[in-house]
Design brief:
about 5% helix, about 50% strand, 11 strands, globular, seven-stranded mixed β-sheet, mainly beta
Length: about 120
């Protein structure tokens, strides 16, 4: 069983920055793909970024060049650095772990097995 715990959410003004963290069960970050998803009221959960076991990141177009996904294998922690935040970035952000080390570049909900409880990000204009 993999446990994921997110932290770092909060409220910021448009243009601000936040860094989300996801602490995983020991060994998780080294073994499987991991991703960040977000969901706002009335919308489906969408994949934002993912990183595979060799550290290769990928992003959806709307966050590329603003967000950075990274991992610290020694700390079993996944990060999402978010810069130049926009109101449309608001939502509940979830950390997720795949069941394997290979994963599609665009993270999809159906492909991820383990989920954290989420951390709220609110960006005001």
């Amino acid at each position: 069983q993999v446990h994921l715990v997110e932290s770092g959410g909060g409220s910021v003004q448009s243009g601000g920055s936040l860094t989300l963290s996801c602490t995983a069960s020991p060994g998780t970050v080294s073994r499987v793909c991991m991703a960040w998803f977000r969901q706002s009221p009335g919308k489906e959960r969408e994949g934002v970024a993912r990183i595979d076991i060799i550290g290769m990141p990928s992003y959806i177009d709307s966050v590329r060049n603003r967000f950075t996904i990274s991992q610290d294998k020694d700390k079993n922690t996944l990060y999402l650095r978010m810069n130049r935040l926009k109101p449309e970035d608001s939502g509940m952000y979830y950390c997720a772990a795949h069941s394997g080390g290979w994963c599609n570049s665009l993270p999809q909900v159906k492909d991820y097995t383990y989920w954290g409880q989420g951390t709220q990000v609110t960006v005001s204009s």
